[in-house]
């Protein structure tokens, strides 16, 4: 019997496994497909909520801590695996912000560098960007990571750790119950037992926990994105306008996102979303009209009430834990939310107050 069994091989599941293994624990991670190929792969990789001043304190607490982890995590994984997660800290330009005063008050309160800048500043930083107004906001500390490569590096590191067993293409059908306790899970590769079980199933977490008669208010929310193949350097920084963003990669790939669609577990793409994303991107950087769209894809975010994740033990099943419901901020919150859960699992002093994230009966029955 292993100490811990993690269900779900996204960034949340893999970071949980990494921290437990670093602490000397024995871990089995099961993934129904391939690790890192669902929401962790499909997102954009911005290491901050899009408009951080608009979020609840529970989310802000996690995001502030996580933001500072990514530079060292990326360097660690590069050194250990040879795979570069491509962490880039070149800042973010916010265009057309209608609550700029609120944003600046938020930044002053937290000591975050955020300033109002004019058109000349924007042209100097990003000559290809077109502004609709005469002012913007600039956050120089914001970074981004190339999330598919982050997931690839995490998987490679876990595969090399003797304390970790990775089982891909291993779908969990339900929980094994003995004498009113959860002893393990039934999978497509046979039963697996563990002292403690951690559900990191993203948009699929509610389906799995329903087999324990736990009503988790987490649902799939589809997001479609596109990527242009542009000349390297056309855009150097993340640019955000009217809820849509452009994220540059070092090789010239420019990601544009994203839609918000309540379509269940449907991950198909469509021409309407493509056209909408192109209009948004080309309104920010007109030169993109001359660049080809190289890719279009969709992923499923784990939507939850107010976007506050569920982190902790289930009330009726004290050896079953959950870390899910991060909505649009799974990558953003992953280092802090996994650290907070591992603190609880190992009896350490928690990183922050865990109370707002606990899957209490009151939170579980919310619609």
From TrEMBL:
Pfam families per the record? DAO
The record's section on NCBIfam families has:
thiamin_ThiO (TIGR02352)
The metabolic or biological pathway listed in the UniProt record of this protein is:
Cofactor biosynthesis; thiamine diphosphate biosynthesis
Q: Gene3D superfamilies annotated for this entry?
A: D-Amino Acid Oxidase, subunit A, domain 2, FAD/NAD(P)-binding domain
* Gene Ontology molecular function terms on file: flavin adenine dinucleotide binding; oxidoreductase activity
Q: Which UniProt keywords apply?
A: Oxidoreductase, Thiamine biosynthesis
**Per the record's keyword annotation, is Cell inner membrane included, yes or no?**
no
A Gene Ontology cellular component where this protein is annotated is: cytoplasm
The protein's name: Glycine oxidase ThiO
PANTHER family in UniProt = GLYCINE OXIDASE, SARCOSINE DEHYDROGENASE-RELATED
Q: Which InterPro entries match?
A: FAD-dep_OxRdtase (IPR006076), FAD/NAD-bd_sf (IPR036188), Gly_oxidase_ThiO (IPR012727)
Statement: the UniProt record of this protein carries the keyword Oxidoreductase: yes
User: Domain FAD dependent oxidoreductase: where?
Assistant: 3-343
- Domain of life, per the record? Bacteria
Task: Name any Gene Ontology BP term.
Answer: thiamine diphosphate biosynthetic process
């Amino acid at each position: 019997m292993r100490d811990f069994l993690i269900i779900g091989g996204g960034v949340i599941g893999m970071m949980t496994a990494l921290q437990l293994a670093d602490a000397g624990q024995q871990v089995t991670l099961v993934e129904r497909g391939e690790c890192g190929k669902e929401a962790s792969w499909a997102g954009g990789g911005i290491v901050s909520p899009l408009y951080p001043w608009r979020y609840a304190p529970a989310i802000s607490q996690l995001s502030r801590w996580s933001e500072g982890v990514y530079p060292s995590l990326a360097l660690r994984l590069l050194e250990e695996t040879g795979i570069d997660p491509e962490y880039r800290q070149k800042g973010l330009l916010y265009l057309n912000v209608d609550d700029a005063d609120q944003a600046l008050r938020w930044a002053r309160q937290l000591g975050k560098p955020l300033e109002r800048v004019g058109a000349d500043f924007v042209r100097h930083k990003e000559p290809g960007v077109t502004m609709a107004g005469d002012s913007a906001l600039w956050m120089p500390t914001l970074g981004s990571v190339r999330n598919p490569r982050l997931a690839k590096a995490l998987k490679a590191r876990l595969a090399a750790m003797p304390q970790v067993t990775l089982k891909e293409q291993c779908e969990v059908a339900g929980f094994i119950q003995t004498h009113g306790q959860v002893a393990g899970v039934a999978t497509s590769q046979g039963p697996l037992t563990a002292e403690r079980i951690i559900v990191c199933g993203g948009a699929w977490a509610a389906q799995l926990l329903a087999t324990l008669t736990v009503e988790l208010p987490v649902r799939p929310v589809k997001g479609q994105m596109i990527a242009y193949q542009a000349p390297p350097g056309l855009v150097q920084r993340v640019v955000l306008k009217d809820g849509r963003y452009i994220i540059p990669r070092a090789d010239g790939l420019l990601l544009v996102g994203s839609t918000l669609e309540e379509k269940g577990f449907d991950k198909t793409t469509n021409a309407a979303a493509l056209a909408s994303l192109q209009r948004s991107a080309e309104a920010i950087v007109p030169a993109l009209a001359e660049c080809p769209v190289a890719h279009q894809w969709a992923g499923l975010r784990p939507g939850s009430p107010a976007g506050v994740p569920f982190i902790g033990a289930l009330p009726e099943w004290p050896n079953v834990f959950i870390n899910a419901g991060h909505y649009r901020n799974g990558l953003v919150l992953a280092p802090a939310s996994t650290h907070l859960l591992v603190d609880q699992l190992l009896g350490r002093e928690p990183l922050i107050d865990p109370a707002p994230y606990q899957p209490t009966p009151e939170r579980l029955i919310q619609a």
